[in-house]
C-alpha cells in the first residue's frame, strides 16, 4: 500500500513535470493577448515573458496586429532594430501623448543648437586672444627694432677738390679787384695834384 501511494505520488510528480516541460511559457505578447504562444510566434524573440511592460506600451500605441505585420514584412536581421525603435517611440508617446518622440528629438536639437552657439563663442574668444597676442608680439618687435635703428646723424661730407678750387679762385679774384681799386684811387689822386701844380 505504501508502495502504491509512493508510486502514485511519483506518477503525479512525473506528470506535473511533463506538463511544465511540454507547455512552453508564453511570451509577453501572447500572455497579454491571452492566446497560445506557438513555437513560431513572431513576438517571442523580442518580447520575453519577464518584460511585460515592453509589449504593453507598444501594443497601446501601435496595436498588436500592426506590430505583427511590420515584423513579418521585415527581414529577420532587421526585426530587432525595428522593435527597439517601436519601444522607444511607444515609451515617448506614453510620457508625452501630444508630441511623443518628436518632443524628445526637439529637446535634443535645442541642446545641440545651444552647444553649437557656446562652441562658436568660445572659438571666437580664442581667435580674439590669439590676435591680441600676435599684435602684442609684433608691437614689441617693432619697438626694439626702432630703438636699434636710432643712431646719430652722419657728419657732413668733406669739401671736394672742386669746391676748394672754386673758393681759391673766388678769393684770388677778390684780391685782384681790391688791388685794381687801390691803383685807380692812387692814379686819380696823383693826377688831380699834378694838374693843380701845373696851373
From TrEMBL:
Q: Where is this region: Disordered?
A: 1-21, 134-172
Q: Which InterPro entries match?
A: LOB
The residue ranges flagged as biased composition, category Polar residues, are 134-144
> Where is there biased composition of kind Gly residues?
7-21
User: Cross-referenced PROSITE patterns, in alphabetical order?
Assistant: LOB
Tell me which residues make up the LOB domain: 25-126
Family note: Belongs to the LOB domain-containing protein family.
Q: What is this protein called?
A: LOB domain-containing protein
- Natural source organism: Cuscuta campestris
